[in-house]
């Protein structure tokens, strides 16, 4: 009997609609199909389609113009790993038609997704850079279900379990079981503790692991040493009469740096979207490593509630300011940096990855930056501190050591192919799918 006829016959008898692969001998067994719609050999717009019905993440790449996952999809359900723009930013576009997929996530991820969607509407609504409206954002709550870690649930005919990924509050590894194959989608993760969240310890059994590889070629500085250097820079600058502007990502990094400042008795202001996110995290203490320390840090920080005139006064006040945006692409940083740039007594402390093409990267490489449409030289000291919420090379190797018998598919990185090649020399079955690749496992 031909393959198509056999498949049709079995589906009629069993109601099965699974994808198929050839098994040893002459039979056919159910198979899992994956399609990489984004995040393949790149950082941004993460999206993986499982068995044509279950979507894992649906993000956007914060470029000019923004970039979205490829292809057209109509999933039955979507599971979101965590609330960063490159993982949830395009989600509302799935709700623009008549078919509205069920959405599954942790409670903090649900709230963060709404904050990001509303911010995207505020910045780009009504333009080609924002392919959704307020109506799609409102629909997100109508089809949403929140889940805690370790509690299995059903989505698009798959059993799903979420595990703490140690990246930001609410971040999750996603375990997908279709009855034949167990897929572990790591999302973004960290194996070491941060002040904000504990590192991941979850290693559920899996046949296939789709693993992020952002820092596959980097070894992070010891966290205690990194904090010591940061605090020394801040204290020295302020002691000498300067102001320190600390550009931070609103989600995760603002709160981490706020807790570091509190732990070392460093007074700081907090400005931008990060203040809203800090309030949000305070409503979900079960997803924090130390809720008491978090509340103490939140109380100690001074929130900036005024406009640019107040910001310029703070910039002249011999202070430390944590402010969005982390790569100098917008936000209150557009006021603070021009205000302090001319004096070498002042400092700009960059606290994370500076993507190519961003003002932050230009500042590091050239000592100049395009701020709010103006390219300006910066005489203030520029220092970099890698407070990454991603695990590094050693963490990736330690994590993957639990999956030596699994198929490893690397994504969310600039060097996925080279890391996959290295893993193969270590006897892993490792690959680096390309954008729009479809794999049958």
Structural features, described:
It is built from 13 helices and 24 strands. By secondary structure, the protein is of the alpha/beta class. The protein has 2 domains: 240 residues, Ribonuclease Z/Hydroxyacylglutathione hydrolase-like (Metallo-beta-lactamase, Chain A); 162 residues, Rossmann fold. Strands 8-7-6-5-4-3-24 form a 7-stranded mixed beta sheet. A 7-stranded mixed beta sheet has the order 9-10-11-12-13-22-23. Helix 3 packs antiparallel against helix 4, helix 6 packs across helix 8 and helix 9 runs parallel beside helix 10.
Give a nutshell description of this structure.
This protein is an alpha/beta fold and 441 residues long. The chain has two domains: 29-217 and 390-440, Metallo-beta-lactamase, Chain A, CATH 3.60.15.10; 223-384, Rossmann fold (3-Layer(aba) Sandwich), CATH 3.40.50.10890. The protein is 30% helix and 22% strand.
The CATH topology of the largest domain, please?
A: Metallo-beta-lactamase, Chain A
What strand order characterises the main sheet?
Answer: 8-7-6-5-4-3-24
Distance between the termini: 23 Å
**What is the general shape?**
globular
Q: What fraction of the residues are assigned to beta strands by DSSP?
A: 15-25%
């Amino acid at each position: 009997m031909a393959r198509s006829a056999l498949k049709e016959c079995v589906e009629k008898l069993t109601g099965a609609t699974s994808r198929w692969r050839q098994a040893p001998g002459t039979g056919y067994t159910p198979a899992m199909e994956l399609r990489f719609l984004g995040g393949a050999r790149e950082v941004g717009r993460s999206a993986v389609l499982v068995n044509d019905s279950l979507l894992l993440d649906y993000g956007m790449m914060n470029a000019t113009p923004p970039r979205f996952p490829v292809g057209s999809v109509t999933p039955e359900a979507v599971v979101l790993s965590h609330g960063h723009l490159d993982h949830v930013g395009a989600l509302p576009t799935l709700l623009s038609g008549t078919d509205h997929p069920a959405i599954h996530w942790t409670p903090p991820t649900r709230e963060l997704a709404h904050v990001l969607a509303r911010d995207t509407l505020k910045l780009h609504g009504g333009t080609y850079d924002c392919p959704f409206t307020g109506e799609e954002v409102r629909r997100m709550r109508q089809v949403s279900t929140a889940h805690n870690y370790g509690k299995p649930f059903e989505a698009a005919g798959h059993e799903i379990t979420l595990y703490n990924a140690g990246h930001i509050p609410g971040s999750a590894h996603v375990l997908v079981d279709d009855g034949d194959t167990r897929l572990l989608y790591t999302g973004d993760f960290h194996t070491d503790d941060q002040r904000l969240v504990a590192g991941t310890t979850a290693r559920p059994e899996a046949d296939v692991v789709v693993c992020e590889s952002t820092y596959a070629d980097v070894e992070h500085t010891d966290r205690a040493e990194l904090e010591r250097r940061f605090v020394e820079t801040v204290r020295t600058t302020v002691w000498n009469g300067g102001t320190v502007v600390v550009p931070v990502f609103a989600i995760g990094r603002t709160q981490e740096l706020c807790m570091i400042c509190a732990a070392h008795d460093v007074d700081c202001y907090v400005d931008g979207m990060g203040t809203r996110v800090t309030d949000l995290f305070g409503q979900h203490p079960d997803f924090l490593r130390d809720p008491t320390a978090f509340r103490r840090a939140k109380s100690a920080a001074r929130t900036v509630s005024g406009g640019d005139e107040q910001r310029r006064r703070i910039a002249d006040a011999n202070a430390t300011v944590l402010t969005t945006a982390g790569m100098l692409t917008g936000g209150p940083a557009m006021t603070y940096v021009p205000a302090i740039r001319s004096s070498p007594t002042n400092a700009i402390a960059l606290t994370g990855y500076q993507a190519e093409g961003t003002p932050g990267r230009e500042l590091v490489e050239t000592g100049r930056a395009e701020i709010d449409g103006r390219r300006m030289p910066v005489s203030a000291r520029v220092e970099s501190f890698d407070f990454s919420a991603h695990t590094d090379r050693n963490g990736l190797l330690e994590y993957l050591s639990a999956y030596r018998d699994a198929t490893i598919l690397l994504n969310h990185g600039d060097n996925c192919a080279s890391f996959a090649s290295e893993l193969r020399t270590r006897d892993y079955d490792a690959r680096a799918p390309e954008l729009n690749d479809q794999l049958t496992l």
